[in-house]
Design a protein that fits this description.
The protein is of the alpha+beta class. The termini are far apart. The longest helix has 23 residues. About 25% of the residues lie in helices and about 25% in strands.
Length: about 120
């Protein structure tokens, strides 16, 4: 039986809350990362990932200009390239990472509305 990372796509892009969202597989380790790109007018645009307080899997681990992201290579995550040493965790599927990316976009939209007041 094939593993999910052997059959699911390596990337996808979509829009949620008016933001560009992406999920990409990291080629070296095979885990997925989710990203949300904010418009220039967003209050968090241009900040570093440790300046933005959001609740996302493992916390924000990436920021580049207006693009923020998280990864699924934390303790308890199955990372395909590290198998079999980490096979007692949970693999974060493409579907799961898409939903978590949407949840991140929801939080950025709420922050945008809150901070613009």
């Amino acid at each position: 039986m094939k593993k999910p990372w052997e059959t699911e796509p390596n990337s996808t892009t979509f829009s949620h809350q008016g933001y560009k969202c992406e999920v990409k597989r990291m080629p070296e380790l095979g885990h997925l990362c989710g990203y949300v790109t904010l418009p220039d007018h967003h209050p968090d645009a241009g900040k570093t990932y440790d300046e933005v307080e959001v609740d996302v899997h493992g916390g924000l681990t990436f920021a580049d200009g207006n693009k923020f992201g998280f990864d699924c290579a934390h303790y308890g995550d199955i990372v395909p390239a590290l198998l079999p040493t980490t096979d007692d965790g949970e693999y974060r599927t493409m579907e799961w990472v898409i939903e978590e990316t949407k949840r991140l976009a929801d939080q950025f939209k709420a922050r945008e509305k809150e901070m613009v007041k």
